[in-house]
Predict the 3D structure of the following.
Amino acid sequence: MAMAHILLAEDDESLRRFLAAALVKAGHTVTDFGDGDEAFNCLKGFRFDLLLTDIVMPGMDGIELAKRAAEMDSALKIMFITGFAAVALHPSSQAPKQAKVLSKPFHLREIVQEVERMIAA
């Protein structure tokens, strides 16, 4: 199974810790941030396989983060985690077309499986 370097942006600290722990346990490397600006700054210096981002965050939101990330690295896979799936999928949001959306609430197992499916694709 392919191991991935994942950039996680999620402002809910407890959820971020849970997600990071689950993904690390599944064998991935996770770099996590609580806001979009910090995550974006990190993207400039490192290559990631997958961006896993919440949509609604302080500072740069997840859609803006994903848009800029996709411009920098077209091979980057993008997954949104959100309580507002309709927002992400709305064409006017200009979210990168290849992005996958996972709605809250979800099971950790579910998100790990989705991540692995995306990485394998």
